[in-house]
Amino acid sequence: MSETTIQSETGTPADDAPVLKVALTVVPSIKDDIAPKGFRSTRGGDYHYKFDPESVHIEKAGTVIRYELTGCDLKRFSMEDLYGTDFQTELSEPEFSEDGAAVWVSHRNKRKGLITVFVNVTDRLSGIVQCDPQMTNDPPPGGCE
Q1: Contact 20/3 with Cβ under 8 angstroms?
Q2: What pLDDT is attached to residue 67?
Q3: What gap in Å lies between CA 94 and CA 106, rounded to an integer?
Q4: Beta carbons within 8 Å of 78's beta carbon, 6+ residues apart
Q5: What is the pLDDT of residues 87-106, one digit of tens each?
Q6: Which of 5, 11, 56, 118 is deepest in the core (most CB within 10 A)?
Q7: Would strands 47-52 and 40-41 be described as parallel, antiparallel, or unpaired?
Q8: Residue 116: pLDDT band by 50, 70, 90 thresholds?
């Protein structure tokens, strides 16, 4: 994982929050092929995908998680949406880069738990690819304000 700082689409700095970058690679599968090592298959087996790192564990409130498409044709694939189980209390609404190559959310990290997230990637040739990264959070002792 790498840490950096980020500006939002609105141009507002993200208060120098740490950013965890997560690379997402999506590749179409060939009929009946087995996912390459480290890759998972989508439900219908039409695609293989890999997150690097595979799971994100958040310990600091305000951390930004940035998913970036890498290793795939950005003219064919783009991130179109991010769904999560906890936008009300833990995650901010997602923001997207103009070219669809990245999406990011800020994590409030107020309570310990597992958050289910789906990143929807559009394949301009055949439709939606749903990829599900793993995300856990563990606030510091005493909780977060």
Answers
A1: yes
A2: 95
A3: 8
A4: 69, 99, 100, 101, 121, 122, 124
A5: 677 889 999 999 999 999 99
A6: 56
A7: antiparallel
A8: confident
- Rounded-to-integer distance, Cα 67 and Cα 103, Å: 5
Is 118 a domain residue? yes
Number of domains in the chain: 1
Q: Which residue has the tokens 């700082």?
A: 5
Q: What is the DSSP letter of 7?
A: B
Residue 143 counted as domain residue: no
- Parent domain of 24: 19-30+40-137
Judge if pTM exceeds 0.70: yes
Render 35-91 in DSSP notation, one character per residue. Answer: PPTT-EE-TTSSEEEEEESSEEEE-STTEEEEEEE-SS-TTTEEEEEEEES-TTTTB
Query: pLDDT tens for residues 45-95?
Result: 788 899 999 888 888 889 999 999 998 899 999 999 998 887 677 889 999
Instruction: Tell how strand 102-107 and strand 95-96 pair up.
Output: antiparallel
